[in-house]
Specification:
alpha/beta; Rossmann fold; four-stranded mixed β-sheet; 6 helices; 34% strand; globular
């Protein structure tokens, strides 16, 4: 079973639609007991970082998500919250990935980035099995994770940034696979079946 974290900042409906299509058993939850019973975790996110972190503390999920040994996929804000910190609200995050998320520069591009962008795979990873390099995925973000030692794919929007990361059992994608057509569905299937 997949636990989809419900912390008031998630775009859970579009994720659950894809999992229903894939006939995958899941639960949308903010309860530790449900997460402990699950095999994998999807950590979606749309919204503001400091609000999201507050909700994780209120639901007692902050530490659980930091130390889990289960495969976890952070989506958009869910990936950014895996960093040490984000410039959004000057917020301390889960400290899984040792980096600080930054805001796109308004003078270079329209912020937020909204729409389709190419993803370049820079390290072979099961998340991208059978997905063509430089496939397009759908983005909706004002902040980004800089390229770091755990970056497995990149995109360019004014500057190059981490499109996807992996550290041990933690995976993250800045784009929204659930809104990215066939490539996005394949990525979610890869996470569910192979990670």
């Amino acid at each position: 079973m997949i636990a989809i974290i419900d912390y008031g900042a998630g775009n859970t409906k579009s994720v659950t639609n894809v999992l229903e299509e894939l006939k995958v058993e899941f639960i949308v939850t903010s309860r530790e007991t449900d997460i402990n019973k699950s095999e994998k975790i999807i950590f979606p996110g749309v919204g503001e970082a400091s609000f999201a972190i507050r909700k994780l503390h209120l639901t007692n999920l902050f530490t659980l998500l930091r130390i889990t040994k289960k495969p976890l996929l952070g989506i958009c804000l869910g990936m950014q919250l895996l960093s040490d910190k984000t410039e959004e609200g000057n917020t301390n995050c889960l400290s899984v990935i040792p980096t600080v998320c930054k805001k796109f520069e308004d003078e270079k591009n329209k912020v937020p980035q909204m729409g389709w962008n190419k993803v370049k795979i820079i390290k072979k990873n099961i998340l991208f099995d059978e997905i063509n390099d430089e496939s397009f995925f759908y983005y909706a973000n004002s902040y980004y994770m800089p390229i770091n030692e755990f970056t497995i794919a990149t995109s360019v929007y004014g500057n190059e940034f981490s499109a996807a990361i992996q550290k041990n059992n933690f995976y993250g994608v800045q784009f929204h696979p659930e809104k990215s057509g066939e490539a996005g569905i394949k990525l979610l299937k890869n996470f569910i079946e192979k990670c």
